[in-house]
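Lesson 9: reading folded outputs for more than one chain in a single document. The general rule is that every protein is listed as its sequence immediately followed by its structure tokens, and records are never interleaved. Here is the first one.
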Amino acid sequence: MQKEIRTVCYDDDLHLEAYRFQGIVQPFPDHFHDYYVIGFMEAGTRCLSCKNKEYMIGQGNILLFNPNDNHSCVQCDGGTLDYRGLNIPKETMLSLTEEIIRQRILFGFSENVIKNDELNLYLRSLHQMIMDGGEEFEKEEMFLLLITLLIEHYGQPFENCIPECSKEIEKTCPL
């Protein structure tokens, strides 16, 4: 039986968490996060459900989750999961968008699963820099480039990412 390895690293420079799951076979039941998740599949095949859509994900896929996107996944090939991810707090994303587009607003991802070799290369490089404790300037430069490209290609107003049922709840039960 292969050993599961879970590695987590908080980056004080970028104000985010990087992590890697290796050899994972456990299913992840339906859940959501209150932060952004940008991740990529190194190996393994999983059946992902996100916002009531089904995906078959594997090596090279990039996963983009907005805060509160419900999702779950299970192994579907008898193999194990090797996945790298970044958890980005909303406050960090607000600061990034302010620097990139000169507006302090949240954006949302229009897609949850993408295949983009260029973005995968940047994401993998950034993740490795964080895990290795790389230089602050290099990490910041790579992070800004990654988020800029994600906004350009997959960004949309955050309110477009909120499911209709959540919008109705907010109308009837404002915070």
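And here is the second record, again sequence then tokens.
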Amino acid sequence: MNMMSREEKAAEIGRILDQLYPNPEPPLNHTSPYTLLIAVLMSAQTTDLRVNMVTPDLFAAASTPAEMVKLTPAEIQALIRSIGLAPTKSRNIYKLSQMLLDEHDGKVPETLAELEKLPGVGHKTASVVVSAAFGKPAFPVDTHIHRLAKRWGVSNGKNVKQTEQDLKQLFPPEEWNRRHLQIIFYGREHCPARQHDPAACMICSKYGVAE
């Protein structure tokens, strides 16, 4: 049985992640805070790969809020129809773009509170944007990070909100922006949800807990 404290375990896990992914880049293709916001909004219940297949055509048609509201929700939906929940997402993209023009001079706000008021933007999406677009400390926790934090014994895994709080306590703020990306990449490549071999996993073989 591993008797390390959560803090010790987090420090060791951080060292492994830094060795594997020293400079992780956001997996969603974007050219501005606005295109990042739209890409993250679309990524809910859809793979990043699928979003990256859709965004070139969408952003060729509209890459700013002013351009986006010139399209109808139906036209937006036609451009993103291959992703999950396309009808809802297309309406939210249109309404969000109009709200940015009406309330923010067409610019993406830099605070979680303002971002979370936008249609279709939850806490995780807002956290990704403030982190990747503006470089502010944030620890976006999706279902994958939630799963791994529980598997590794660095969170009790009650819910996503609790996992975010646990990870923010274990890792210093200057590490948050890279840690959440590193954990996502590590999970995809070395620690999948299914058919996982803990003995072959650098983290689980040393620090993991039974699921």
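What the second record shows: The two ends are 14 Å apart (CA to CA).
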